[in-house]
Structures are given as C-alpha cells and as structure tokens.
C-alpha cells in the first residue's frame, strides 16, 4: 500500500488576500494530514504581509467552508483552497 507523504494545495486568493499575497493563485506542498492552521502558517511564512488577512479570511476547502481549522484538509493528495477575506455588500 502506498502512502501519500505530501498534499498539493492549489490556493486561490481573492480581493484583499490577493493584494496581501501579491498573487491570485499559487500551489503549496504540505505534509499529508495538514490542517488549515498549518496551511495559514505556510502562507504567512511565504508572504509575511498576509498574516493579518489570513486570520480574518474564510477558507473554502474544495468548495466547502472550513469551520474547524484543526481538521485535516483532505484525505487525497490534492486540494483546492479559496481564501476569501470579509467583504461588504453582495
């Protein structure tokens, strides 16, 4: 049986998150079993100016709101995460 050692996270940043990171999307490799807290720490390490916006942003993991940031992101080897800062209107 083969074990996945890492997961590929395809990140999409919106509005203030994209501005803070300086990108609209990127890919990160995380250890298998990583959670949203691990992901936020990896993003903040790569983009220190994004720490504040990450703290207040909603994360959609494969289209589903991540309410428990300590839960694993996925059981597969790839996941898509949308980083959505708060916004007015709509």
From TrEMBL:
<protein>
    <submittedName>
        <fullName>MoaD/ThiS family protein</fullName>
    </submittedName>
</protein>
<dbReference type="InterPro" id="IPR016155">
    <property type="entry name" value="Mopterin_synth/thiamin_S_b"/>
</dbReference>
<dbReference type="InterPro" id="IPR003749">
    <property type="entry name" value="ThiS/MoaD-like"/>
</dbReference>
<dbReference type="InterPro" id="IPR012675">
    <property type="entry name" value="Beta-grasp_dom_sf"/>
</dbReference>
<dbReference type="Pfam" id="PF02597">
    <property type="entry name" value="ThiS"/>
</dbReference>
């Amino acid at each position: 049986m083969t074990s996945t050692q890492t997961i590929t996270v395809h990140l999409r940043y919106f509005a203030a998150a994209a501005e803070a990171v300086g990108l609209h999307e990127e890919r990160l490799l995380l250890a298998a079993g990583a959670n949203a807290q691990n992901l936020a720490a990896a993003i903040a390490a790569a983009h220190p100016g994004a720490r504040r916006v990450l703290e207040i942003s909603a994360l959609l993991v494969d289209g589903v709101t991540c309410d428990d940031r300590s839960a694993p992101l996925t059981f597969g080897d790839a996941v898509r995460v949308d980083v959505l800062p708060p916004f007015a209107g709509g």
